[in-house]
Amino acid sequence: MKKGQKFILATFNGTTTPAKDCEKHANYWKLIQEEGTVTSFAEDMGFPDKNRV
Predict the structure, then answer these.
(1) Nearest CA among 35, 34, 52, 31 for reference residue 43
(2) Which end of the chain is more exposed for a tag (fewer CB within 10 A), N or C?
(3) From CA 47, how far away is CA 10, in angstroms rounded?
(4) What is the Cα gyration radius of the chain?
(5) Which residues sit opposite 6 in a β-bridge?
(6) How does pLDDT run across 43-52, given as a tens digit for each residue?
(7) pTM here?
(8) Secondary structure letter of residue 29 according to DSSP
């Protein structure tokens, strides 16, 4: 992936459905099949999991 690259989200955190106790405001699974643009990488933002974008 490159910054500025377009993509369509297929999964979030490796799954297609949220946990049953997922709070409404944290339900990022609603974004599956939506188009997005890579703006930054985990490494740039200091996240411990470098595979996140």
Answers:
(1) 52
(2) N
(3) 21
(4) 12
(5) 37
(6) 888 877 766 6
(7) 0.66
(8) G
